[in-house]
Amino acid sequence: MTVYQDLDWANDPVTKLRKFYNLERESITHFSASDVAIEETHFSSGTGLKFTPEKISYGADILYFHGGGWIVGSPWTHKTLCSWLAKFAERRVYAAPYALAPENKFPKQANQASEITNSFLKTRDKILLAGDSAGGAMVLWAAAGVIEKNKILGIASLYGAFGCTKGTSHQTYGDNSVDLKMSALFAMYAHLGCEDLSEFQAKLSLSGAPLLLVKAECDPIADDNDWLAQRTLHPVTHMIAKGQAHAYLQDCGNSKEADASMRKIAKWINNLV
Questions:
Q1: Fewer Cβ neighbours under 10 Å: the N or C end of the chain?
Q2: 245, 238, 241, 243: which is closest to 262 by C-alpha?
Q3: What is the pLDDT tens value at each position of the chain, 273 positions in all?
Q4: Inter-axis angle of helices 79-89 and 256-270, to 10 degrees?
Q5: Pairwise CA distance, residues 215 & 157, whole Å
Q6: Residue 239 CA to chain centroid, in angstroms?
Q7: Do the Cβ atoms of 77 and 107 come closer than 8 Å?
Q8: Would you tell me the crossing angle of helices 108-121 and 134-145 to the nearest 10 degrees?
């Protein structure tokens, strides 16, 4: 869902991108699940959000990392998505903040993902990791640096960005994308400070807990999921959202397709416990 289609993600200043991205996400918060309590909570990286559904059936919490190309976004921009994840998974979701680029360069984000997760695990026996887009890479950076890897029950990467800049999905859907044209992707990685994407990819976890890769069929970075699947030793489950574009899960509460997909994601998570 994109409201501000006049943004130039390749050339506009980050301050402008953040302003209008936040406004866009604020415009959909009324679609959040009504029976999920949302409150601020503390992480080692700062203040984030805790989502507590009215019905809790499972004990293991979900630690969530938001998307936004590492340059925009926050737990607040993903309130709608996280509220529905908490509702359908019937467990608490904790959305953590992390340092954004270009003020903070890679590998700050990768290291921080591990730090946040290790701190979160100090008071928990088991957790699950989930994140979308840039957050889909954050969860794999987190998993790579976790000290007690046996405490990670599973990892859900939702249309994750893994540093791939070639492939048929870019060619097929990139030109028609508002915010994920090739020029925009290169700009995001440049803001992150990743001129050599092999360093970015080397930080990704390639073994451990079961991994769910959710791919939107009409997403310019859909091929990133295939690239990762060919290299990882994580037990992988694939989920393809037919006819959907990047960030489609932000439409939860307003789209039957997004809701159905989130239910499937929650079912995969709950089958692990």
A1: C
A2: 241
A3: 444 557 888 999 999 999 999 999 999 999 999 999 999 999 999 999 999 999 999 999 999 999 999 999 999 999 999 999 999 999 999 999 999 999 999 999 999 999 999 999 999 999 999 999 999 999 999 999 999 999 999 999 999 999 988 889 988 888 777 678 888 898 999 999 987 899 999 999 999 999 999 999 999 999 999 999 999 999 999 999 999 999 999 999 999 999 999 999 999 999 998
A4: 50
A5: 9
A6: 15
A7: no
A8: 60
Q: Name the domain count of the chain.
A: 1
CATH number at residue 143: 3.40.50.1820
Amino acid identity at 133: S
The overall longest dimension of the chain from CA atoms, in Å, is 46
> Taking a C-beta distance cutoff of 8 angstroms, is the pair 21, 1 a contact?
no
Q: Which two tokens stand for residue 261?
A: 């997909």
Q: Starting from the edge strand earliest in sequence, which strands make up the sheet with 152-158, in order? A: 36-43, 46-53, 93-96, 61-65, 127-132, 152-158, 211-216, 236-241
* Residue 149 covered by a domain: yes
Asked if residue 122 belongs to a domain, the reply is yes
The full DSSP string for 115-136 is HHHHHHHTT-S-EEEEEETHHH
Domain residue limits at 257: 14-270
The strand pairing partners of 46, in sequence order, are: 43
Q: How far apart are CA 49 and CA 78, in angstroms?
A: 10
In this structure, is residue 6 part of a structural domain?
no
What is the pTM assigned to this prediction?
A: 0.96
